[in-house]
């Protein structure tokens, strides 16, 4: 599954020349926490989020440190962001974005690494859509289970193959049988965590309609 498959294309944007007041009105009206910012050529040039607005002077942010006559004590960037009414001054210009063919797993990793809630999908600087954390969660719910051949014997073979391929477990230590689509696993495992991983694996094999756990801890 790729960015183009899960992105939201119904996007509310704002121009870089707009005022912060206009941006806030849009965010409140649409009940959204961020706005992609578009330049005069229609290209994505930034992202304005609720986090960017938390340093506003109205909230007590952007205060001068010590004597305002001493420029070395002033954070000029913070001063601009907390006082300017131009979106271009307040937005985050460095935007983490992805291409339409970016895999969903790579997008999730990007969000985790950069601690962001949404990632714009861009092609040739043009904004195509937005992938949010909610979009990724929807993709997880919609993802089909592993496809396998039908029949108890085929299900048992699929489980054995997955035990070795996914978890690196030797199948001679775990006996796998399937009766009426219910998987029965017997043998020994080294930890409770290993037992849980096996359960998750079995539950994700399409066609399995039950799991009987006869595994013992060593």
TrEMBL record:
Residues 7-64, 91-150 form the CBS domain. Residues 151-218 form the BON domain. PROSITE patterns: BON, CBS. It comes from the Bacteria. Keywords: CBS domain. This is CBS domain-containing protein. Gene3D superfamilies: 3.30.1340.30, CBS-domain. Pfam families: BON (PF04972), CBS (PF00571). It comes from Rhizobium grahamii CCGE 502.
């Amino acid at each position: 599954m790729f960015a183009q498959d899960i992105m939201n294309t119904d996007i509310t944007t704002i121009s870089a020349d707009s005022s912060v007041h206009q941006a806030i009105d849009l965010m409140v009206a649409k009940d959204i926490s961020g706005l992609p910012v578009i330049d005069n050529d229609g290209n994505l040039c930034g992202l304005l989020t609720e986090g960017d607005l938390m340093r506003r002077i109205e909230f007590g942010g952007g205060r001068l440190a010590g004597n305002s006559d001493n420029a070395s004590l002033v954070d000029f960037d913070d001063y601009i962001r907390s006082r300017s009414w131009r979106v271009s001054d307040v937005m985050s210009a460095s935007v983490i974005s992805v291409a339409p063919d970016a895999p969903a797993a790579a997008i999730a990793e990007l969000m985790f690494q950069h601690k962001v809630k949404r990632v714009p999908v861009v092609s040739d600087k043009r904004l195509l859509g937005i992938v949010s954390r909610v979009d990724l969660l929807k993709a997880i719910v919609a993802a089909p289970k592993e496809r396998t051949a039908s029949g108890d014997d085929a299900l048992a073979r699929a489980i054995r193959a997955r035990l070795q391929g996914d978890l690196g477990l030797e199948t001679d230590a775990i006996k796998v049988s399937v009766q009426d689509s219910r998987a029965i696993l017997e043998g020994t495992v080294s930890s409770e965590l290993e037992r849980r991983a096996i359960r998750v694996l079995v539950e994700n094999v399409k066609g399995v309609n039950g799991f009987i756990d006869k595994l013992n801890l060593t």
